[in-house]
Design a protein that fits this description.
Elements: E1 24-27, E2 36-40, H1 42-54, E3 60-64, E4 69-71, E5 75-78, E6 86-90, E7 93-95, E8 114-117, E9 122-127, E10 130-135, E11 138-140, E12 147-150, E13 153-158, E14 161-163, E15 174-177, E16 180-190, E17 196-198, E18 202-212, E19 218-223, E20 229-243, E21 247-253, E22 258-274, E23 276-281, E24 298-311, E25 315-320, E26 327-339, E27 342-343, E28 345-349, E29 351-360, E30 367-368
Parallel strand pairs: 1-3, 2-4, 3-6, 4-7, 5-8, 6-9, 9-12, 10-13, 11-14, 12-15, 13-16, 14-16, 15-17, 16-18, 17-19, 18-20, 19-21, 20-22, 21-23, 22-24, 23-25, 24-26, 25-28, 26-29, 29-30
Antiparallel strand pairs: 26-27
InterPro entries: Glyco_hydro_28, PbH1, Pectin_lyas_fold, Pectin_lyase_fold/virulence
Organism: Vitis rotundifolia
Protein name: Polygalacturonase
């Protein structure tokens, strides 16, 4: 019996690009795919791929339409292709036989279900999908976001390698939006922007065993731009190493926004020459000047536990919160950060909370609890 949507990509991708406006769509149903969940649609997929790969369009789109379930045996998408800007758009369900022993394999390729090789400029966009698994992907020198999950549930990402220049803007490694029950683990990410970014309507995210740097760290947000109501909650981050990154663990929200960022734990973090190992910024403004506004995204119930290492700036901990909407229930335990072999410092404004254990630097606005 066919399994539910379980997309296991064992691939090596050279780069991933965002989608331009001008494109040509290749719908697999136009090549004979049935989409009833029982008919083998692999031949139709391969016919569609041949045309996509040979297309002279600037952005050929391999389209898997919605409201259908496509049964696939192992398929091998071989490059190089004419276009270096191919989009693989998944709107329907792709499924495989639940028992790999029943797979119909060609060229003895039963070790991989969906396999891409020598396909430059491939963008895999996963939207409105459940029970998705991405394993063993490698991305290199991509000029834009690498992996994007939008409106997805129950996603497992593991053993992903992302490598982009440290000075390349907007090259987020893994970007989550309106997605829930996400597990990210054992990934190595080097980018010019956020290693992992989590934005509006995302919740129940677990991030473990990550190496990040260069990059901007693991970021909640930005949130609340243009006065928007946005929420992020139930985030657990542990066993992460930041090396030479601009940020470590940070929460960034715009003035004038609404909503909340709450119920988050950052634990077991190692910072190696990170510019801002710990940061909350309710005044996020990447421009030269932003207007002051009273409204702000509420930030509460945030815990930092066992965070150690070195900071590239004297101020290793920066908690900049709004006077009208202060940060509440912020807790820190066993923080040990230094600056160039000397004591680091902390900046703290409009924050309510507690600290305990080793606190280097001490955070003056947090009430210290003696064990």
């Amino acid at each position: 019996m066919a399994s539910r949507l379980e997309i296991l990509f064992l691939v090596s991708l050279f780069s991933v690009l965002l989608t331009p406006l001008h494109c040509s769509v290749f719908d697999v149903t136009q090549y004979g795919a049935i989409g009833n969940g029982t008919t083998d649609d692999s031949p139709a997929f391969m016919l569609a791929w041949t045309d996509v790969c040979n297309s002279s369009a600037s952005t050929p789109i391999f389209h898997i339409p919605g409201n259908k379930t496509f049964l696939l045996n192992p398929v091998f998408f071989q490059g190089p292709c004419r276009s270096t800007n191919i989009q693989f758009q998944i709107d329907g369900i792709i499924t495989a036989e639940s028992e790999p022993s029943n797979w119909k394999c060609t060229r003895n390729r039963c070790d991989k279900w969906i396999h891409f090789k020598r396909v430059d400029g491939l963008f895999i966009n996963v939207t409105s999908s459940n029970k998705v698994q991405l394993t063993g992907l490698s991305f290199r020198n991509n000029p834009h976001m690498h992996v994007v999950f939008d409106s997805c549930d129950m996603v497992h990402i593991s053993n992903v390698s992302i490598d982009a220049p440290g000075d390349s803007p907007n090259t987020d490694g893994i970007h989550l939006k309106e997605s829930t029950h996400i597990n990210i683990e054992f990934c190595s990410i080097r980018t010019g922007d956020d290693c992992i970014s989590i934005v509006d309507k995302s919740s129940n995210i677990t991030i473990q065993n990550i190496k990040c740097g260069p990059g901007h760290g693991i970021s909640i947000g930005s949130m609340g731009q243009y006065g928007a109501y946005e929420t992020v909650e139930n985030i657990y981050v542990s066993d992460v190493q930041f090396k030479g990154s601009l940020g470590g663990v940070r929460i960034k929200t715009w003035q004038g926004g609404k909503g909340h960022a709450r119920k988050m734990v950052f634990k077991g973090i190692t910072s190696l020459n990170t510019q801002y190992p710990i940061q909350i910024d309710q005044f996020y403004c990447p421009h030269a000047k932003c207007d002051e506004q009273a409204d702000a995204v509420e930030i509460s119930d945030i815990s930092y536990i066992d965070i150690k290492g070195t900071s590239m700036r004297k101020t290793a901990v920066k908690l900049a919160c709004s006077e009208s909407v202060p940060c509440k229930n912020i807790s820190m335990q066993d923080i040990n950060l230094s600056y160039q072999g000397t004591n680091a410092s902390a900046y703290c404004k409009n924050v309510n909370g507690t600290s305990q254990g080793i606190m280097e630097p001490s955070v003056p606005c947090l009430y210290y609890q003696t064990p």
